[in-house]
Structure prediction request, 398 residues.
Amino acid sequence: MENGNAIVGQSGGPTSVINASLVGVVETALKNKKIGTVYGMRFGIEGVLNNKLLDFSKVDSNTLKQLKQTPSSALGSSRLKLQDEHFGPILKRLKQKNIRYYFMIGGNDTMDTIHRVVEYARDHGWEMAGVGVSKTVDNDLFGTDHTPGFPSAARYVAMSVLQGGVLARDMQRVDQFVVFQTVGRSAGWLPAAAAAARRKAGDPPHIILLPERPFHRKNFLSAVKKTYDKKGFVSIVCGEGITNPDGSPVSASGTTDKFGNTEFGAMGGTSAAMILHRILSDEFGWRGEFQVCESLQMSAGDRTVPLDIKEAYGCGKKAVQLAASGGSGVMVTIDRVSKRGEPYKSTYGTAPLSEVANHERPMPDKYIAKNGMDVTKAFLDYLDPLIGDLPDYASLPK
Prediction:
């Protein structure tokens, strides 16, 4: 690969560690002799189209150090779906800036963007290395043990359900149930993470609804009644993308984004948690509450896991090392090398951009309980090293 400049962007939803990946790319690229100027795209690929680029050589090292610990997406994001007419202007801008190294941090759609831009450039005589850095709290990217951003979001969910469970237990004579909704369109990794909130058997959450399993109203109501009769209250966690047996969203939302993804509860519509609340209130006449925190769980700096920052930064660093050594067309992955029962250890690998763009990674069956409304011990063994220890709260004797 010829010497040249580099460009990096962020796309899709935020995480609490996506900026750590950005700093990993920037700091490593600034030190590489093959790379001259390092540009940042303002608002994803739109920054290239609109010539809104940040020269990172003008950003002082203290700001980068602080940025590594800062949540959200510092460069801004975009959900622009590339059309045929975009590629010509994009390549023209990349040539003007002598971009030979192209990095983006994001999920499936982002990996598709990298793949298409690099292939278009190559087909038109411009050689450019393109490497993706994985990012998504949904944890549904193909080819990686987990994605940067997921551990911190999983801890956010577990802590919220742990604390909300204590509240629900103590307020059961006022509110008989609580429904907590997580993000995640088609994968249940985040709602499943709520299971880590349990300190002992029978603790909240009592029911976990995953997009991988259809929502059966009769079975759900039966499980709710059984739990209420035993505990006096019910704690429920659901993924935003849970569906009915016919495949329709429980949220009944018909709104989609520019990539065709359903936006659950968007534009004033209902959410899955709201529907579940209505079902329980109508069936049992109970009072309860639903908790839908949307992007807060995606960018909560106060619950960021140090391991998550370390691995996110490492993914960004690895992306530059790969590109500078001639690698292209891949996404950096996190590979767990420790076996069950051993101290957690990981390394970095790669997955082809084309495969990441065209595949999703739902929770495997071995992680889902037979009744479809809980997780197995195997999942907790997978999750526990990622989110760290959770607090123990006191309870008075009955």
Q: What stands out?
A: The chain is about 35% helix and 15% strand. The mean pLDDT is 93. The longest strand covers residues 99-106.
